[in-house]
């Protein structure tokens, strides 16, 4: 918790206190809490952690909790609000957390789901949902049972998205205008979850009892397996990208770590521009892979100690096209391929490989161009120290409109003001190059802000 920002700690503590207060009535003597139903639902939700730790069809893969939201909504339909709050706690607290701080994330997840299920159950009770569901041995009153169930799903979605936005704004300092942008996208899936949860609740209350309700779990487990396959495939994509980046770093040791930092800077710009998560990830991939075409450039040219001949310079300037060819068949990169091909184009049309200008340059390429130049200037090399961030920003602003898209430069400046740079992405020197004698030659006068990420006077 110590590494968590103060505002985020207050948010977590407030949510935890709220969840405890909501659950308190169920724990009081004489509350009439249906402990049997609660315990069975809580145990079923706890089982959701099994696919995250073990795999039935290969290596372990993470499974998202969203596949089990129908079970939480069934709890909101079947239990009083105070009891429904308790259902998600065992599974949330026992869940696997991949990123630090583990304790803070675990407590937040438990409090968030408890409040969300509690709010959904209260909404369901206020709308007369229990009456429309029918008692033991009686059928649900359809279609009237659908109305409170759908309304409950809307409350569930709104509370979950609101709490997600709150922690993004406080813990990750996401701008408020972006923190809650996912609300509309989650409504549809949660309505589907509500229908599955309602089906489970109806079967639970039927003469066949809870055993019949377990039939609904089968598609839920299939859904878990599908999600696991998706995440496994996503992990394979990341491994492919890491392998390509490592190959570039080995071949051109002078820019070691540069690709990862450009990917991070590109992601910061994308977040400021308000891009959706899918495009933001594709843009980060574009930043990480922007120099993959150097694999097609002869090593003797990349590592040449003296000035380049015009022919050697033309060879290096082919690396965007080489990179585009290398990733052409990688479907998940999507828009990233255009950025890899065009990240050396300039707004005034003097760039390469095709001399595009203005809006003809793809948006991703304009973002990566700014991120690439910024890291090139701020990174320490064996032959010169990195520029301070304010000096690099001033140079980007000087060249905005001629070399760089001013909108992308402004977005990077806002991101740096909000997040900083050295704190989020440490600048590292070249491990291999540091052991070599420092170069004495200086960059040619008038070198643009996109000063080379490698050696002075060379195209990046």
UniProtKB/TrEMBL annotation:
Stretches assigned to the HD-GYP domain: 233-428
Residues annotated as domain HD: 255-377
SUPFAM superfamilies the UniProt entry points to: HD-domain/PDEase-like
Signal peptide annotation: 1-19
Tagged with keyword Transmembrane: yes
Pfam families according to UniProt: HD_5
PANTHER family the UniProt entry points to: CYCLIC DI-GMP PHOSPHODIESTERASE TM_0186-RELATED, LIPOPROTEIN
Name of protein: HD-GYP domain-containing protein
Region Disordered, annotated ranges: 421-460
SMART domains: HDc
Positions of transmembrane segments: 63-87, 107-125, 145-171, 183-204, 210-228
Keywords, sorted A to Z: Membrane, Signal, Transmembrane, Transmembrane helix
InterPro entries tied to this protein: Cyclic_di-GMP/3'3'-cGAMP_PDE, HD/PDEase_dom, HD_domain, HD_GYP_dom, HDIG_dom
Top-rank taxon: Bacteria
Comp. bias intervals (Low complexity): 435-460
